[in-house]
Amino acid sequence: MSEPQADLLDEEQVSLLLEVLTAEDWDASVAGFTDNGRKTVDRLIAQASAGEPHDRTAHTLKGTALNLGAAALGRLAKELEHAPSADVVAQADHLCDLLERSLAALRTCKPIDV
Asked: Are the beta carbons of 18 and 110 closer than 8 angstroms?
């Protein structure tokens, strides 16, 4: 199930960050989340697929996503944090899609130049 575009981001969190970060810092934050977010999602899916504990990886994804304003991704990561491995595996495609859509939405946000 796909979240509507409007539900992807926490507009209040994003606005707060856009007020305090320069355009360069915002772009660096989104670029870092792009790289680390993909690695974290891949690790989460791999751990769940192997039946290994995945709660810490899901917790990391949750925190990073929510801090940057990727609300829908953060909510899903929170849900998966204590979910059985089979649920994580079943949500793998949705998780990857949600990450990519969240990243695309974050890239469209730009700090206001003063």
From this structure: yes
